[in-house]
Amino acid sequence: MKLVIVESPTKAKTISKFLGKQYNILSSYGHIRDLPRSKLGIDVENNYEPQYVVPIKNRENLKKLKEAAAKSDSVILATDEDREGEAIAWHLKEALKLKDKTERIVFHEITEQAIKDALQHPREIDGRLVDAQQARRVLDRLVGYKLSPFLWKKVAKGLSAGRVQSVVVRIIVEREEEIRKFKPEEYWTIHADLKTKTGAIEALLARIGDASLEKLSITNEGDAKAITADLEKGEFAIASIDKKTTRKNPPPPFTTSTLQQEAAKRLGFSSKKTMFLAQQLYENGLITYMRTDSVNLSAESLAKAKDYLTKNFGSEYAAEAPRQYKTTSKSAQEAHEAIRPTNVIVDPDGTSLEGIPEKKLYKLIWQRFLASQMPQAILDTTSIEITANCPQGVRSKNYGLKTTGTILHFDGYLKVWPQKFESKELPEIESGEDLALDTIRPLQHFTEPPARYGEASLIKTLEANGIGRPSTYAPTISTIQIRNYVKKEAGRFHPTEIGEMVNKVLVENFPEIVEIQFTAEMEKTLDEIAEGKELWRDVIGGFYQPFAKKLAEKYEEVKKTVVTEVTDQVCEKCGKHMVIKFGRFGKFLACEGFPECRNTKKLEKEAPKSTGLKCPDCKVADIVERRVSKGRARGKIFWGCATYPKCKYATWEDPTKPPGEKSAQKETETDSEPEKE
Fold first, then answer.
1. Among 158, 297, 385, 427, who pairs with 239 as Cys (CB 3.0-4.6 Å)?
2. pTM of structure
3. Does 453 participate in catalysis according to the annotation?
């Protein structure tokens, strides 16, 4: 009998379908050992030796695994093929005290062929990958367990710091600061509605004299009106017509990062939800391994994709030659395949999946893989330049306008991977043709601040800067929300007051720890450990010694951040005033007599802001501004009756704005009905 150990029971169940009775397949339920939670667990005086323990919850399972290993002829460690999986295999070998009868196998997909091929090619545990994982674990423990007590003493109890999470919070805080400092600038665009012999076109002013217009070329109403007056007297004619064919390439298959980004944009999934669902799809044998930086595809999968496309869509929708893509990520590391279906013939409707979210994610992966092997989309683009001759012009005698039309000639990969595309067909027109002016429309605009980060844009920024690894994005983003350092409103991240305060303390006192470049360089160093170019204990020592010295200095230098605000409320226990204090979860009321009096209260929520308009349903109460409190649209503003739930009137449209003017809901990433508080 051979014992096969994997990480999860779902994975064990799937593998058991492919192996015979001579195999006993059990799960370790993730890491069997870890650093202790109650103490640092790193012997900094003994070359940073980790002190691993078996958590209480794992002890019964470890006993079961030991008994099974003792009865087996050999033990096969079949954990995932990345650093984390390699470390889990190593911990199992150590905890089970396995020696000669141990084998290590890896596979990229849970299919019968992949499992049997892996069993034919066992290997040793890769100590370099284990060292890289240990270095990350030890480094994160030293930063977290050393910096967090500093925050408890200098800011508030219960706070935490982390090597990666603190950098992510900083990115979000700095974006918020950009938004606060932003000053909108006015600019104008001039649009002309023109009549041709065969139809009408709309053109945009693009040139004044010989000078091309930039975004902020026209900055006030006076200039806009002067230009409009010139154009109203102008004579318009077609100066040139440029027709060309453009091609749009299909996107590459998914990596971990791009899957999380697209699932956020198209499905509204958080990165945590995406990775949970992807894990389920992988363990059920439907997709390849979901933690990967690679966009490589196997020759077998490429052949199957071409065959499927030819049979189901026609030969014109299958690329002539297989498409292979190059990895562009700075943090590309694992030699995996891209994320793809294990069998492209299994379409989204042909799976045994019961959950709708799982089906949606599988469909996204299936579509993206097929699209990557389809021809380019072909677009016919026509660019027309128009001259406006204004003999009596005050601002200029000569203006230039421009318009562009695009028609989809062949959809190609867009057939299975829809993308936003605005088709604009222009009437048949000839160079030199005179045009008749219908109307000139000057439009006022204001520059907008940078958008707050959503799941997709934050992950894209982290990857672009080499911060963390794609497999760490989901837990990191989840952690900073759980810690109340940021909150998600209308699909966008906002820093909380406590988050900004913690960031300020860390940036002022430990700038190197929350520096983007430092975090990115550390990722490169971890890669070098995995490649055998660096020794993990040397790396940890090079970081920890100066860090520990500076931390000791800061304990002496930095004074406690005390932010209190006296209120009119009186403590009912001792009669003193209640003050507003900061805690881990934000502001709260506490007696100013602390510690003699420990009375605390929650701050009362502010009353909904009234619009001063009467509810159109009940015609009694006012319409008030509210925020959605749960669901995908959480944080999004809507307007409803003040007497809810007695009157259930609600709308997304701001009733204080003129009819037809869209509400300022630019930051939402979801489209759903308002959910009442």
1. 385
2. 0.82
3. no
